[in-house]
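User: quick one, fold this
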Amino acid sequence: QVQLVESGGASVEAGASLRLTCKASGRPIDNYHLGWFRQAPGKDREFVAYMSWADNSPEYADSVKGRFTISRNNAENTVYLQMDRLQPNDTAVYLCAADRIYGGSGLKAYVYWGQGTQVTVSS
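Assistant:
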């Protein structure tokens, strides 16, 4: 079992930056695919970013490409999401997810999920 706990969410103004942290416990995550997703009020959960354990190559949703950066520190069992130039439509609960086998942008590819951290961006 892998437990995931997100932190770093806050209320900020448009244009600000935040760094979200997802701390894993239970097992080392160096061979887990890691993803970030978000869910805004009244909307479906959507893919934000993903990093493969095999080659650490990142993938991003078009809506965040060039503004968000996913990274991982296997020694600290942690994955990060650096968010720059935040916009009001980035407002959502951000969740991290982990999976040993699949990964990618699909929700169903992930077995382990955190509870999320709230990000609110005002204009």
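User: anything notable?
Assistant: The radius of gyration is 13 Å.
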